C-alpha cells in the first residue's frame, strides 16, 4: 500500500500486479526482483527493482520531485519522519503483530489482552508523535499526507480488523487518541488513499484463513 499511495500522491501512472493470495505462493517475477527477502512490495522502474516499502516511498519522492513532497525539506524534520516510520515498522510489524498472531491462535484471553495492550501502547505513542510532528495540522506531514502518514496509515486496515478480531478492543479511542481518530478519518478519505486501503471485512476473512492454516500446521507438528 505504501508505494501505491506515494505514486498516487505524485500522480504517477503504474501497473499494479497482485501476488497470489495463497500463503506460500511466490511468483517468478517476485523471486527474481527480490531474491534476498522474497517478499512484496517491489517497485520495478525502468527495468530495475527497488525493494522494501519505506525505501520505495523515498525513491518515488526523489525520482518524481514535481509532485507534492512526501518527505520534509528540512533535514531535521526528515530525520524525525524517518524515526517515526522506523518506529511503526519496529513496534507494529516486527513486534506487535507476531505477538498478536500468537495470541489469537492460542485463543487465550490473557494472551489476547497482552497483545491488545502492546498495540494500545504503540497507538498512544503515535498520538503523541502526531501532536509533536503535525504541529496542530491534520497530518503528520502537516497540511498533506507525508512519510509518517503513509507508514502508519498503511496499518489502519489491520488495526481496524484487530479491534474486531480481539472482541471489540478499542485501539483508536476518542478519549486516549482523539488526534489519531480524526487523522484516520481524513487519511482514509484522501483521494490518494481511499481506493488503496483494504476493506476491514476482507482483512478479517483473510485473518480467519491465516489462523486456521497456522493452527493446522501446529497440529501436524
Automatic annotation (TrEMBL):
Keywords: Detoxification, Transferase. Transmembrane segments: none annotated. It is an enzyme of class 2 (transferase). Residues 74-211 form the GST C-terminal domain. GO terms for cellular component: cytoplasm. Its EC number is 2.5.1.18. InterPro entries: Glutathione-S-Trfase_C-like, Glutathione-S-Trfase_C_sf, Glutathione_S-Trfase, Glutathione_S-Trfase_N, GST_C, GST_C_Tau, Omega/Tau-like, Thioredoxin-like_sf. GO terms for molecular function: glutathione transferase activity. CDD domains: GST_C_Tau, GST_N_Tau. The keyword Metal-binding does not apply. GO terms for biological process: glutathione metabolic process; toxin catabolic process. PANTHER family: GLUTATHIONE S-TRANSFERASE U17 (PTHR11260:SF615), GLUTATHIONE S-TRANSFERASE, GST, SUPERFAMILY, GST DOMAIN CONTAINING (PTHR11260). This is glutathione transferase.
